[in-house]
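Re-run with default settings, no changes from the original entry. Doing this only to confirm the output is reproducible before filing.
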Amino acid sequence: MTQPPSPPGSPYGSHTLPYGVCQRGAGEPTVCVRIDDSVLDLAAAAALLEHPNAEVFAHSSLNPLMALGSAAWRDIRRWVVSLVADGNRAEVVERCSVDLADVTMLLPVEVGDYVDFYASEWHAANVGKIFRPDSPALPPNWKHLPIGYHGRSGTVVVSDTDIVRPQGQRRPGSDGVPPFGPSTKLDFECEVGFIVGQASELGQPVPVSAAREHIFGVVLLNDWSARDIQAWEYVPLGPFLGKSFATSISAWVVPLEALAAAETALPGQDPEPLPYLSGSNGDLFGLDLHLQVEINGHLVAVPEFRDMYWSPAQMLAHMTVNGASLRVGDLFASGTVSGKDPQTLGSLLETTWNGDRPIELPDGSTRRFLDDGDVVTLRGWAAGPNGSRVVLGEVSGRILGRG
């Protein structure tokens, strides 16, 4: 299995410049950007250069920066790009930069609400075939609205946070008694997350045309899933304990503006969505993101985000059409990214067909689901302008046993 070749050039050069929050030793956390294998402390640089918004960089989250609004995001990004590109400011950049290895990366946003969608037609159809083999693969509402569930924001964690194997009830055996204990079907889900940077008013839906004014940036996201717990609990109200124990996101938030060259048309929607989910091609943008999943350093999947049925703009519009408001720091995710081909399946549930078809890793071991000690890593990139590439911050997590 091979990943599509990456364009040449630095993955963390001036075309990417993702935002994060870093801490050096016992110092105060600050907002930073990544430049290759260094981090530029924006609070220090802004103080030296007397930037008018210097105070928003001296925080432990990106929320104050995002709260300035979309016009300010664009202005600040132009300023950051100018810092990196302007040779006259090289001394300031050098004084305010440290090696990536010398800082601790923190959760980049204070997450308000978290909604996880189900936007891949291939993933939804596969799940339907696995769990409802005698029914249509897609439920009747699937192509009329972006299905989602409200997750637990308090268990969103930054990359490299260990994941303790969850425990709970599982489907009963012949005795009718549900067994209780650690999950035996722990899985990953390769997803893309979107960070909301601009709030909306309660009662006022956000149209698809306004999505770019509300979406600050993009992260990779692993929606860890305990499939056995989920299978027993999800009828009739959907995911709960099988999902709420942990959701991992990357430490780096790539501004949506940095992915402009990766915008692409949706694969096609039939039937035509209702008017509040419709718009011009520019409104209903997809993203051509090349993703990969590794278990213990071995490549096991290469999902393609361009295959997603629903646009991020449609997800945002549907999430607010009932009048629900957005808050700065809200997070919504795409759901598992899966495609038609076996190598593009973004979960072990699909790859192993609920454990019936184990995969073999290069070391000779097999996996139906994740073992204790396994490290799952998600990576991704997109083509940028002029042959460059924009890299999404990786997401990694190690599974810890319980007791």
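The chain has ten helices and 26 strands. The radius of gyration is 21 Å.
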